[in-house]
Amino acid sequence: GKGQRETEEHLKKASLMISSSRPTTSKRMAMLTESCIPVALKALEEGRRADEAIRDHVIEMNNSRYNRVRDAAKLLVEKFPKNGTVMTQCYAETILGMMLLECRERGNNIRLFCPETRPYFQGARFTSTVCTEMGFDTTLITDNMPAFVMAKEGVDVFTCAADAISVDGYVFNKVGTSQIAICANYFGVPVYVSGAPDIGHPTWDTVTIEMRDPEFSLQAMGVRTAKKDSGVKGYYPAFDMTPPSLITGIVTNKGIFKPNELFHYFDDGKPYELTV
User: Fold this and answer.
1) pTM score > 0.70 for this model?
2) Residues identified as active-site
3) For the sheet containing 171-174, what is the strand order?
């Protein structure tokens, strides 16, 4: 009836609003939010609460995701030398916790270097906090120190997650990732990215880099660093693109893929985002 059509339209609008709030991850988010629409409609037809049905659906998807991430973490940690040194980049998602949990259970007491990832300082506020609270030797460095640290501190692996990975093997992650990957390649440090290809991004040019308020680049956590009213301009791309040539392997729950062979991830016909 009319009520159902209006409800469906409301759900579609809500789905679009949520999924499009972050342009770089909009494709992946759309697959998640749109999967909730039929769940809600079915619940209403059966006389159940739509919000509770969506909640249960999301919890089920999240639990499934935790299992996939743990499988990926097991593969990733196999690439770490025993008690080796690992550099990260803006890496506070589930995979970080699973990676560290896997290290702890294996008795692999890795040492971590975390770039601060300004201008929003997620590496300082999130990544380093997770690492140290899980009991690992954690050192915070500024964003212009990775090359020096790789040269002087014996970094064994550079690893990060990704906000988007195109099927042709390009990685989109917190800005600064690509320059660290360049340094890693120069110093012979392997680069492993955890995640899975986004079926909505068949090629790199389908991903939109989110540009944020340039004012953030003129200050540090609210403290102005550039002279006010001086005419100095800011620039703030939230993410950058790391090409396949700089990536050793992309670590997924289905195995570690060479970037140029990442399309094989879908050989079983099961899209990553909708596996429940």
Assistant:
1) yes
2) 163
3) 164-165, 171-174, 239-242
